[in-house]
Each structure stands twice: as structure tokens, then as C-alpha cells.
Write a structure and sequence with these properties.
Elements: E1 2-10, E2 13-18, E3 24-29, H1 35-45, E4 62-69, H2 76-81, E5 89-96, E6 102-106, E7 109-111, H3 113-123, E8 124-127, H4 129-135, H5 138-149, H6 152-197, H7 205-217, H8 219-234, H9 240-257, H10 262-288, H11 293-313, H12 318-336, H13 338-369, H14 371-384, E9 391-402, E10 405-414, E11 422-423, H15 424-427, H16 430-448, E12 452-456, H17 464-478, E13 482-486, H18 490-493, E14 498-505, E15 512-517, H19 520-532, H20 538-549
Parallel strand pairs: 3-13, 3-14, 8-12, 12-13
Antiparallel strand pairs: 1-2, 1-4, 4-5, 5-6, 6-7, 9-10, 10-11, 14-15
Helix pairs in contact: 6-12, 6-13, 7-11, 8-10, 9-10, 11-12, 14-16, 16-17, 19-20
Length: 550
């Protein structure tokens, strides 16, 4: 329930504050005074988009704030899901800055516009001229049927099966697409895999092969160079080892003469040991060097094949080729096993489709079961609103599965006796549409469990006894819901628990819209003006009194 509404710097509204009744509140005023502008501001609280064009003063921000009592509406789950603090008094605020930035808050916590729309839809239902267009849409009519038939459980069950079917269908179609792609590449992938597999590549082998090739290609010169060095080291009279041995002998003599030379002797002895080890290593390496042209040819051939495949696949190493080989093996394996996977996916698709159709048929049955009661109750309400010959008919058509089920419904309407019911957009006038829409709102108010309903001139095109019946129905709704009605009819305005008057104030530089709560005597005066114009007669004033009393 809306406890209070505050609007600042919105369109023609500089500052506005109202506290509607828990029951039925009426809003009246001159044409263009700003009654419907208020609805635009309320729309901001419900998540509607806006821009800086709504600013009355372009250098100030617009703020719209609504205080709601929500303790009875079971919204704790929504607040938990949105990670918002839950309080039974909920404050929704919308701000639009001069720069055009829009911000939304619930209990002073910033929220996304989509979240605000979800919350707003649970708190208020606003009738506007847009609703008359919406009433002609199949999705809106189907939603009415669902609300009347109370199909929440069946619809949720169906949607789970529909989502499972859609997921299975997507998976199957992706597999089919992949199968076509792999089919085109299958032979080529197998050829490339065989080509790589034939090499039996080994991690790190390229570096070993290139090193061995380098030695084999220069084997004769390597052996010659090593032998020349060994000769210099090992020559009996003038070799390096012989000379170093003599130096070591001298070092030992120095050490015996003075202990300080022991460190030098140790250092030189270490060098001699290292040189002898070097000689041994060179001797060993010389023995390993082969002059083997057949082996060299084999290595050259293998490296050539590796280089060719690296160039072909854009690889820089054997390891990269092995990764490509692994990927190709996966693709070949996937293709070889794709028929089985397709079969499994197709079976799952058929099973989920059957389950979805079964759930859809249960939903359809429950929807259809309400057609008769819906048509009958709506015709009774329309009769009370002066449309005794009105006929309502719900037409059903089975359609392809969608998230809303297997059904398409259309509300057919006829206002005149003997006329065949037809689609709303073909047959309903403005006044008929208003009465039909009001009857639907009356019928659905409890079933859709909306705390607050706002009617914007829903009494357009009606008068007299029909208007009185409409306001009696409003008062009945108001015993269970909060109702706010913008009206131009005095007999409707007189029945409100509270009466607000919207007017233009031209006292400052800019014309602004204001609102005030009318006291009993002010209500009489306003109703008299609605009856007879700006200067009402005594009889008009008396008629206004009677409207308030009856």
C-alpha cells in the first residue's frame, strides 16, 4: 500500500506531496493541470525510463519518492534475492540528475532498473491509455487467463520442462553442426594425423638430432682438432702435462723452504688436476666421434621431415607438433564417436519434448477449464455496467511450444445484441473499452493480489447510472485493496474516502502544478464546479451535497 508520494522538479510539478487513503482516493482537476503528469512520476517508481526533459528546473535534480507498507505481501524472498534490507515500511526513490543520469534506490540501497520494475509490478497496477492497447495483445490476454485459472504451479512446471527441452535442442543442433564440420574435415584430419603419427615424435628429440647431426657433419675435423690438442698436452718432452709436472715439483720445493707457498702449491695442484680431467674428457669425446655417413643420412632425413611438418603446421618445435597431433587425434576420435553422441542427444531431445508436451497439455487443460466461468463472470459485470447485450468469448488455438505454453488465446467481444464476437481492436469503442477493462480489473484484483490499483480516467465515455455502478465496484475493490482514481465525473469523485484537487499555480515565473487535499466544504465546491462549471448555481451546490451524502 502506498502511504505517501513525494515529487519534486518533475515536468510542471515543483513540489508535491500526498498521502492517499487506505481505501479509495479521488483525484480531480482541470484539463492539463497535471493529473496524468503525476502518473508519469509514479511510473518512475515502477522502473519506467526517463530523461532530462522531465526536469522543471534544468539545473536541479528530479526526485520521486514513494513510501510503501509491504508487510502483508510476502516480499522477503525478493529482498533476499536482490540482497536488500527488508523492512515492512519500504522507501523507493528515483533521482534524475541535470546531466541525465538516473539512479534508483530501495531503502537507500542502489538498485538496477530491472529490479525496480520487478518490485514495482508487485506493488502497483496502473491503468492508463496504454492498457487499452495492451488489452488487445495475446500475451496480455493469456496472462489474464493464467491469473484467473490460477495456473502458477502448472506454468512453473511447464517452464522447467520447456527450458530442459530448449537446452536439449540446442545441444543436439550444436552436435549436428559439429558433425557437418567434422565430416568435411574428417579425411584431411585423418591424413594429417597419420602423417604425424608415422614420425613417432619424442619430446626433446629435435635438439638431440640437431646436435648429433652437427657432430657427424664435422667428424673428421673434430677428431683432427682433438688429436692435435691431445698431442700438445701429452708430448713426452715438451708437452703441457710434462711441463706442469715440473712446475708442481718446483712448487713443492718452495713449500718446503717457506710454508707461505703452500697455498700457491694447492691452487696449482688443483689446476693440474682439472687439466688432466680435461685431457681425459677430450680423449673420451674423440673416441665417441664417428665417421658414419649412413647414420648422418638418416638423421638428415628425419630432421627434414620434422622441418617440413613444422612449416606445414606453423610450429616451431617437436613439442608443438605433438600438441597438434594430440588435437587431431581428439577430433578424429570425436568424429568416430559422433554418431553415438548424436543418437544419445536425439533420444534426450525426444524425451524432453514428450515431457514438455505432457506438461503443456496439463497447463492447457487448466486454462481451458476457466474459459466458461471467465466469460460468464465478465458478462455479468459488463451487464451491471450498462452493457446488457455484451458477449465475451475466449478463443483458443494450439501453437508451437514457447515459454508461455502451447496455447494462444484471444478475447473476442461484442457489445451489441446479435453481433458475432470479434477481436477487440475491431469492435470496441473508447467507452466500451474502458468498461471492459474496468470489469477485467475488478475481476482480477484479488486473483493478481496487487496492493494498489490506480485508474486514470477509466470512466471516460460513461455517465449516469453506469458511472455510479462503476464507482460502487471501485469501493468494493477498495475494501481489499488501495485504489486511487483520476476522474472527471462528479458522481465518481464524490464517493472517494479522500479527494485531492490538482491545479495550476501561475503566481511565479513558471506555471507549476500543485495538489491539495480537499476539506468537506471544499469538496462540495469542487463537485459543484464539475457539475455546472466555474460559477456553479445554488442547485449545482445542492446536487454536490447530495452526491456526498448518498
Amino acid at each position: 500500500m502506498l502511504k505517501s508520494l513525494s515529487i519534486s522538479n518533475y515536468a510542471l510539478i515543483d513540489q508535491l506531496h500526498m498521502q492517499p487513503s487506505k481505501g479509495l482516493s479521488m483525484i480531480t482537476g482541470e484539463t492539463g493541470a497535471g493529473k496524468s503528469i503525476m502518473l508519469g512520476a509514479v511510473g518512475l517508481l515502477l522502473g519506467n525510463r526517463s530523461d532530462t526533459k522531465v526536469l522543471l528546473h534544468e539545473d536541479k535534480k528530479c526526485v520521486v519518492e514513494g513510501v510503501f507498507e509491504i508487510g502483508e505481501y510476502g516480499l522477503q524472498g525478493f529482498f533476499e534475492q536482490e540482497e536488500l534490507d527488508y523492512e515492512e515500511t519500504c522507501i523507493i526513490r528515483r533521482e534524475i540528475s541535470p546531466g541525465g543520469k538516473s539512479r534508483s534506490f530501495v531503502n537507500d540501497t542502489p538498485v538496477l532498473l530491472d529490479s525496480l520494475k520487478i518490485l514495482g509490478a508487485k506493488l502497483m497496477d496502473v491503468h492508463s491509455q496504454h492498457d487499452t492497447l495492451q488489452l488487445g495483445e495475446g500475451s496480455y490476454q493469456l496472462a489474464l487467463v493464467d491469473a484467473f485459472a490460477q495456473t502458477k504451479v502448472e506454468l512453473e512446471t511447464y517452464r522447467k520442462t520447456f527450458n530442459a527441452f530448449r537446452k536439449a535442442k540446442t545441444h543436439y543442433e550444436e552436435l549436428k553442426k559439429k558433425a557437418l564440420e567434422l565430416q568435411k574435415e574428417a579425411d584431411f584430419n585423418q591424413f594429417q594425423l597419420d602423417e604425424l603419427s608415422a614420425l613417432s615424435l619424442v619430446m626433446g628429440e629435435q635438439a638431440d638430432l640437431e646436435s648429433t647431426q652437427e657432430v657427424l657433419e664435422n667428424a673428421e675435423e673434430i677428431k683432427l682438432k682433438i688429436n692435435e690438442m691431445l698431442a700438445l698436452f701429452q708430448e713426452e718432452q715438451f708437452g703441457v702435462i710434462q711441463g706442469m709436472g715440473q712446475i708442481l715439483h718446483g712448487m713443492l720445493g718452495l713449500e718446503r723452504l717457506a710454508h707461505k707457498f703452500s697455498e700457491l702449491r694447492e691452487r696449482f695442484q688443483s689446476v693440474l688436476i682439472e687439466v688432466k680431467d680435461l685431457v681425459d674428457t677430450l680423449t673420451d669425446e674423440e673416441s665417441k666421434v664417428e665417421i658414419d655417413f649412413e647414420k648422418l643420412d638418416k638423421i638428415r632425413d628425419r630432421l627434414s621431415r620434422i622441418y617440413q611438418l613444422q612449416k606445414k603446421h606453423g610450429a616451431n618445435s617437436v613439442e608443438e607438433l605433438m600438441k597438434i597431433e594430440s588435437d587431431l587425434a581428439d577430433k578424429v576420435f570425436e568424429f568416430q564417436n559422433l554418431d553415438e553422441r548424436l543418437s544419445i542427444a536425439e533420444k534426450a531431445l525426444k524425451e524432453t519434448q514428450e515431457t514438455m508436451i505432457q506438461a503443456g497439455e496439463v497447463l492447457t487443460k487448466k486454462r481451458k477449464s476457466c474459459f466458461g466461468p471467465f466469460e460468464k463472470e465478465l458478462q455479468v459485470l459488463l451487464s451491471g455496467l450498462g452493457m446488457e447485450n455484451a458477449r465475451i468469448q475466449l478463443e483458443h488455438k494450439t501453437v508451437m511450444p514457447s515459454s508461455s505454453g502451447l496455447d494462444e488465446v484471444e478475447l473476442l467481444f461484442s457489445a451489441n445484441k446479435g453481433s458475432t464476437p470479434q477481436a477487440l481492436k475491431k469492435v470496441a469503442s473508447g467507452g466500451e473499452f474502458s468498461r471492459l477493462l474496468f470489469a477485467i480489473k475488478f475481476l482480477m484484483a484479488d486473483k493478481m493480489a496487487l496492493p494498489t490499483l490506480i485508474f486514470d480516467e477509466i470512466d471516460t465515455g460513461i455517465s449516469g447510472e453506469v458511472a455510479l455502478q462503476m464507482v460502487r465496484m471501485m469501493k468494493e475493490i477498495a475494501t481489499r485493496h488501495q485504489v486511487i482514481c483520476i476522474t472527471h465525473l462528479p458522481q465518481v469523485a464524490a464517493k472517494g474516502d479522500l479527494h485531492y484537487f490538482v491545479y495550476k499555480d501561475n503566481s511565479s515565473d513558471k506555471t507549476v502544478s500543485k495538489i491539495r487535499l480537499l476539506a468537506p466544504e471544499d469538496r462540495i465546491s469542487e463537485l459543484a464546479k464539475m457539475i455546472a462549471g466555474a460559477n456553479p448555481s445554488a442547485s449545482a451546490v445542492e446536487s454536490a451535497r447530495e452526491l456526498l451524502l448518498n
